[in-house]
């Protein structure tokens, strides 16, 4: 039963994260990938875990919900495996809508196959602070997906200039095009796309902040300090993104000087640094920020 529950509960997050990894590994995922569904599932999982730690749920199998979950799970795996065919037959919008609908049904029936929905709802409605933070955590990355095309042109130019001057200080011979989306070196140039503008890192930071607020009620009432962390973290992530791009650029320039510029080298640098090391820099940077900033919020003796 425990294995059955884990499969039902984790099927959608695992499938989505596999597709997300495939997308950032330059493979073609066979199903939709979205920041939004990952953040919603993580936020709901953290809410559930927080309520369980506070007062453990009574786990008991619910046969009707388990039967529905098994049916939804079977259809979900079938559609995931044949998604390209479904997309050609139904159209992209209809196929995406069906995949997301089934993903939601699988996750929720998996979650409530051993836990009473009324029990969960009664508890969460009595935790308004945690509920608001959970909604904010679940919404920040979908909002980023929705608005990045509108906002990122305003951040691309500051990012371009900051990276340009930082690399010049480090001794790289750079040239600055008239547009705000490129940086040129003697051997190659880079394009500053919407994720590289820093919005992605800022959204990720806010998501982590809201998850911390769910788990730690001691921050309730410290709204001035939380607001300070909210905007200070955004500025920090913008600067961290500048350092991230500069490190990637510096690694590419070093590799070009030693091994020569080629498409194979470019693909290797993108796969290694842009798709993987860049995320590692973000996660380490966020961890360091919170390890320092929470001491400011609570004091040295209050950090858990």
Architecture overview:
- This protein is mainly alpha-helical and 304 residues long.
- It is built from ten helices and two strands.
- The chain has helices at residues 2-24, 35-54, 63-81, 83-90, 92-111, 117-125, 128-169, 199-215, 223-259, 263-298; strands spanning 182-184, 189-191.
- A two-stranded antiparallel sheet has the order 1-2.
- A hairpin with a 4-residue loop joins strand 1 (182-184) and strand 2 (189-191).
- Helix 4 (83-90) crosses helix 5.
- The longest helix is centred in the middle third of the chain and has 42 residues, at 128-169.
- It starts with a helix and ends in a 6-residue tail after the last helix.
- 30% of the residues are buried.
- Residues 20-27 have low confidence and may be disordered.
Which secondary structure elements does this structure contain, and how are they paired or packed?
Elements: H1 2-24, H2 35-54, H3 63-81, H4 83-90, H5 92-111, H6 117-125, H7 128-169, E1 182-184, E2 189-191, H8 199-215, H9 223-259, H10 263-298
Antiparallel strand pairs: 1-2
Helix pairs in contact: 1-2, 1-5, 2-7, 2-8, 3-5, 4-5, 7-8, 7-9, 8-9, 9-10
Order of helices and strands: HHHHHHHEEHHH
Beta-strand percent range: under 5%
Helix content: over 70%
Low-confidence stretches: 20-27
> What does the average pLDDT come to?
76
Describe the global form: globular
Q: Output the structural class.
A: mainly alpha
Nearest-angstrom radius of gyration?
22 Å
SS field, number of helical segments: 10
Got a strand count? 2
Distance, first to last CA: 34 Å
Major sheet size, sense and barrel closure: 2 strands, antiparallel
Strand order of the largest sheet: 1-2
